[in-house]
Design brief:
alpha+beta; conserved putative lor/sdh protein from methanococcus maripaludis s2 fold; Elongation Factor Tu (Ef-tu), domain 3; OB fold (Dihydrolipoamide Acetyltransferase, E2P); six-stranded antiparallel beta sheet; 21 strands; disordered C terminus
């Protein structure tokens, strides 16, 4: 009989203890406001997370290429005499800018000048004879055949004078176009032939730069595309130019396409024969670009936190390429919508955010996050 009584007493004590604990917790629980809806305390939302935002921008996925090219003058010739002879005068200095038609090298021309004088004298005699005969036409004093022969002799004399003048002109080597002459390869007194190089002449107002690219880029190349060239002689300085010509065929040995660019040389700094590093960006498709700091990685891959209607939304993306401090991505992002670049540590799907201005980078964002955290 004693044991059942003890069990009843123990159960009664436990019931009293549970009632007392319930009364105490009810008194410790703060009362909800009178106008709050039922269950408002249970559903109270956490404070918005302070974040730094930057917009999604659109960038071209250009393909940068760096290749080596070789420079040449816009027009360039190696000057040779039209006839063999002896040099009597060199009329230029190396590096001198000359005009079209300017005398550069003179060969001895005494014989040719005498030939011109003789041809001129014969022409005068033929002209006078033809004039006397023509004055008698119709009188019968001079047969018509002699008058016609005098006219033919006059024409022959004119041709002989023109030939003599051409032979004289061949003794002078003149600039075929305006440009800059190179070093003189001859001196007065030298004997030259038609194969002798006297000097070079370059029109280097613009330089032609030849280079080659793999055939896979053919569809993305066209005349007029912008590029830049550089040479170690000028450090990091780059010179602007444009593609001028594309070759009509692919080299079957290398599968490369030859291209020719034109580069203005207003300061006359560049020289034919220089090697150049050619840099051009082939146009590509447009893609969304986000700051590198916005890109996060998880078990399912890369993602960014986009802010839509004041709430954080996790958007999966696929990275394409880095351009400076931004990354081209493919995903469900809209151009111009904000993404979180600082303050992502406390974000969850649907969490409210409070944009703050960036002040001093990550340290400022951390301070803002600390100030906005619930106490």
């Amino acid at each position: 009989m004693l044991r059942p009584r003890i069990a009843v007493l123990i159960l009664a004590a436990l019931a009293l203890a549970l009632l007392a604990w319930g009364w105490w917790t009810a008194r410790a629980q703060p009362a909800a406001p009178a106008d709050a809806p039922p269950g408002a305390a249970a559903r109270s939302a956490p404070a918005p997370v302070p974040v730094v935002l930057e917009p999604v921008v659109e960038l071209l996925d250009d393909t940068p290429l760096d290749v080596v090219g070789s420079g040449a003058a816009l027009r360039s010739v190696a000057l040779r005499p039209a006839v063999a002879g002896e040099v009597s005068r060199v009329g230029f200095r190396a590096g001198q800018r000359v005009e079209a038609g300017q005398l550069l090298v003179q060969l001895v021309d005494r014989t040719q000048r005498l030939a011109v004088d003789a041809a001129a004298a014969r022409l005068d005699a033929a002209r006078a004879l033809q004039a006397r005969y023509e004055a008698t036409r119709g009188t019968g004093a001079v047969p018509g055949s002699l008058i016609d022969e005098a006219a033919s002799q006059l024409r022959l004399a004119e041709i002989e004078l023109a030939q003599a003048r051409e032979a004289l002109a061949d003794r002078a080597v003149r600039a075929p176009f305006a440009g800059v002459v190179g070093l003189a390869e001859v001196e007065p007194g030298d004997r030259v032939t038609t194969d002798s190089v006297l000097t070079t002449l370059d029109d280097r107002r613009r330089l032609l730069v030849d280079f080659a690219l793999p055939e896979r880029y053919l569809a993305r190349l066209q005349p007029g595309q912008a590029l830049t060239v550089s040479n170690p002689a000028f450090g990091d300085r780059r010179f602007d130019g444009r593609i001028a010509q594309l070759d009509s065929r692919i080299d079957p040995a290398t599968r490369n396409l030859r291209l020719r660019a034109e580069v203005p040389n207003a300061g006359d700094l560049l020289r034919p024969g220089m090697s150049f590093q050619v840099r051009l960006a082939l146009p590509g498709e447009r893609h969304a670009a986000v700051p590198e700091l916005a890109l996060q990685y998880g078990r399912e891959g890369a993602h960014v936190w986009a802010v839509r209607e004041g709430q954080a939304r996790q958007v999966p993306v696929r990275t394409l390429r880095r351009i400076g401090d931004r990354v081209l991505v493919a995903g469900a992002l809209r151009i111009g919508e904000p993404v979180v670049v600082e303050g992502v540590q406390r974000l969850r799907e649907g969490r409210a955010v409070a944009p703050v201005a960036r002040r001093g980078g990550a340290a400022a964002a951390a301070a803002a996050a600390s100030a906005g955290a619930p106490r």
